[in-house]
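Input structure tokens:
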């Protein structure tokens, strides 16, 4: 079999195995990502595997450069890559993407044992950078447009006591509409 045929067969196998698995992403027919661990898990990480033209006779390109991995130290990323490359050497010449993803899943705790279980603070504790003047000017832009007394009166005539337009205010009377368009057709 040629490398292309091997890749086609492995691509079909990966699609059927990981169908419906939210942790698997096919970035292209020769590039895949798999998230090891659950969302919110401080020891979760993302592996990206890309196939060169001569794969599986040559090693795939394995990357951990995804933004998802920003909290993982570079030494741990390198350690994971080294262990995955050991698996690559053992499986060279065979379809190995599934094997690599499964190896990472099975050995997640071992691969991430030195990664601290630190969770970054969430949304409420954001620190904003900028001067107070910038913040206040953006608040001023959020004010509602000033209406004249006439505009307010017209709006009040259209709306109910809660300021909402009545149900059906923009409905078209189908009978009148059809009779108007029908009479134009007759002329």
């Amino acid at each position: 079999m040629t490398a292309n045929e091997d890749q086609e067969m492995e691509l079909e196998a990966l699609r059927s195995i990981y169908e419906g698995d939210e942790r698997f992403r096919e970035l292209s027919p020769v590039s895949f990502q798999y998230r090891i661990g659950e969302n919110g898990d401080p020891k979760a990480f993302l592996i990206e595997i890309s196939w060169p033209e001569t794969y599986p006779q040559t090693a795939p390109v394995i990357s951990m450069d995804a933004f998802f991995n920003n909290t993982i130290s570079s030494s741990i990323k390198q350690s994971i890559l080294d262990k995955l490359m050991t698996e690559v050497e053992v499986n060279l010449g065979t379809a190995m993407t599934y094997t690599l993803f499964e190896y990472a899943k099975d050995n997640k705790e071992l691969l991430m044992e030195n990664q601290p279980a630190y969770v970054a603070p969430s949304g409420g504790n954001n620190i904003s950078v900028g001067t107070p003047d910038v913040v206040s000017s953006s608040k001023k832009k959020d004010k509602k447009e000033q209406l004249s007394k006439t505009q307010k009166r017209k709006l009040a005539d259209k709306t109910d006591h809660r300021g909402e337009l009545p149900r059906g205010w923009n409905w078209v009377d189908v009978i009148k509409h059809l009779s108007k368009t029908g009479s134009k057709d007759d002329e």
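Residues 73 and 184 are 75 Å apart (CA to CA). Residues 74-91 form the longest helix (18 residues).
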